[in-house]
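Protein record

Derive tokens from sequence
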Amino acid sequence: MKNLKPREIWGYFDEILKIPRLSKQEEQINAYLEEFARKHALDFSQDAAGNCLITKAATKGYENHQPIILQSHVDMVGEKLMDIEHDFTKDPIETFEQDGWITAKGTTLGADDGIGIAASMAVLASNDIAHGPLECLFTVDEETGMTGAFGLEAGFMKGKILLNLDSEDEGEIFIGCAGGIDTIGRIKKKVRASDPSSVALGFTIEGLQGGHSGDEIHKGFGNSIKLMTRLLWNITNKFKVSLSHFEGGKLRNAIPREASATLVIDPAELESVKLYFASFLSDVSLELQKVEPGFKMTMEELPLPENCFERDFQRDFLNVLYSCPHGVIAWSQEIEGLVETSSNLAVVKDLDSDYIEVVTSQRSSVESAKKDIADRLAAVFQLGNFEVRHTDGYPGWKPNTNSPILAISTRVYKKLFHKDPEVKAIHAGLECGLFLEKYPYLDMISFGPTIKGAHTPDEKIHIESVTKFWKFLLEMLKNAPKN
């Protein structure tokens, strides 16, 4: 990777891939940044939330330009294929190049937002890049709650122009994003002893595309939890069977790719259940053939589990999961092609031997609509006697089409690449809305190279787009407004 151009970015990105940096486990990457600042005689500071700030004086001749803040987040999503052995707390990310892309070997790559970190470091380390006073902000825990942005201290940074380096489509400049909130249901399991004469069947789903629950919620990808629930709801209503186990999904901000379940079955119903499964699999495979070519659902006989769900609990539990909305709820009436509101049925997990937790996430560029869909999820959970809680959530970022830095960026992009960039809002969550709460005067845009499959083991970054991203960033620094 160090031989790729521009070497300034790829060299640092290669180093970053060796450093564990899961959300809420950013100590090693922060120590790396502190050592980097010391090595280059740059000012380093860290706030109580764990966010890091590295500052650099203006290059000669640019002292009277307005300060620029470059912002990226240091944490990454850790997802891997089921058959890959990888420990995100210690193992480096292994990569390879294919058809003009860099991707990882069965894990997330961490280009979201490792490439933003690398770009900031490359600017900070350089002696010949033209820029005014520079602040590079590295936030923590963006992926699991934006607690770094929530905890950002007022006065920690001085600049009034912020370039967020956390977007994933080169040629697009983002000026707004959705706000988000999680709605979580928790229920105590009610079980009974399995009939010793019963048999058990296990079902698994894998091979789905998954994807970012904001950027890719509109693409119609399969949701492993919804698909498994559909199978189980039908089987439990047609045959003498009992559910013993159900888990699916791993991350609140990713469309779930995998799920597993176990059914306890009356032996007299076994062949009928197998026949129904074959028919179900045929139907679903046909439905998903265009969008999910890697979809795989299997069935196998398992040892009989000790317990299974009580009938009434099983009915209520599956009714709740089947009723949970997933996907696009509403499209924007202001920006064509933009998802306004969505919900992601993200995770079903056994907390321990007593409880099951269901995690859903809602996004919307309209605050009242965000609250409405979160309340709708709460109502569904309450129908099944779940305990419900909402996370604090985070605000959206309202587009400002009169932004001075936006005007500069569109002019710079056209001069560089002889075409206009697309100016858009994004359905994913960016930290910009939270920054505005502490720094309401900030003028912001967001941009980045092309990254596909973020939050999944299919994540990859387009090599050529990194070159364009780098050129654009350098020109933006050079063309920052004067005081």
In short: The mean pLDDT is 96.
